[in-house]
Design goal:
The chain is mainly alpha-helical. It is built from 1 helix and no strands.
Length: about 60
């Protein structure tokens, strides 16, 4: 029987971002809706690109829609 792989530790990852949940992110029981995690990924990736200088949201040729 194979063992279940263990999840990585926070120290295993180079980039971390704190995201505060909004009221609309949660269901009536206070749990984050699964679809919101994709929004979090998008937020973190874009924040990283902006901070790394790879995405210039004000002067760059790319328009994010």
């Amino acid at each position: 029987m194979s063992s279940k792989p263990q999840p990585g530790q926070r120290a295993d990852f180079a980039h971390h971002a704190f995201i505060t949940t909004r009221w609309g992110d949660n269901d009536v029981y206070g749990h984050v809706n699964n679809v919101q995690y994709y929004s979090y990924f998008d937020t973190v990736v874009n924040r990283y690109l902006i901070e790394a200088g790879a995405l210039d949201i004000h002067g760059g040729p790319v328009i994010g829609l």
